[in-house]
Write a structure and sequence with these properties.
Elements: H1 2-25, H2 48-57, E1 61-64, H3 68-73, E2 75-76, E3 80-81, H4 87-94, E4 104-107, H5 115-125, E5 131-134, H6 137-143, E6 148-149
Parallel strand pairs: 1-3, 1-4, 4-5
Antiparallel strand pairs: 2-6
């Protein structure tokens, strides 16, 4: 019985060590701790009420910063999908749909989601000035009963 316990412990610690090693060298490893969330300046955030007004008047373009699979599962009606990680490839396709000074509202999902923050920074870096973030956008929009779509079309 003692030998079985020793072998079990060896397998357990050995597999844990191998898992940690693979995670450390993997380009998509799981972080051991959550990195600090990006700080958003108050002037970069838009309220749900203001976003609803901009949506209903067509005053702004909505950009979904989530992965395409999440966008297809459900998104704000009329929103364009511009995943942060595919910015360099996809922005040139979306750019013609944006007016030069047209306001942009970016959202992702979850209170800890940084995708919208990262996308806002990328857009500002290329000269887009009027960029706002709807924090926890998908969740708050859907909970408020606002128009949504599924599929790959805006």
């Amino acid at each position: 019985m003692r030998r079985i316990i020793q072998q079990t412990l060896i397998i357990l610690f050995g597999s844990s060590a191998i898992g940690l090693l693979v995670n450390a060298v993997s380009p998509r490893g799981i972080p051991y701790t959550r990195p600090p969330q990006a700080q958003v300046a108050p002037q970069d955030v838009i309220s749900l009420q203001d976003a609803q007004g901009a949506w209903s008047t067509g005053a702004a373009v909505f950009l979904d910063a989530r992965a395409p699979a999440d966008y297809i599962a459900g998104h704000i009606a009329g929103a364009l999908n511009l995943p942060t990680e595919d910015f360099d490839q996809r922005y040139p396709l979306i750019e013609p749909l944006l007016g030069p000074d047209q306001p942009i509202i970016i959202y992702c999902d979850g209170k800890l989601c940084d995708l919208s923050h990262d996308l806002a920074e990328k857009l500002k870096a290329i000269g887009r000035i009027d960029v706002k973030i709807l924090l926890n956008g998908w969740t708050v929009w859907k909970k408020a009963g606002q128009p949504i779509n599924t599929g790959s079309k805006p």
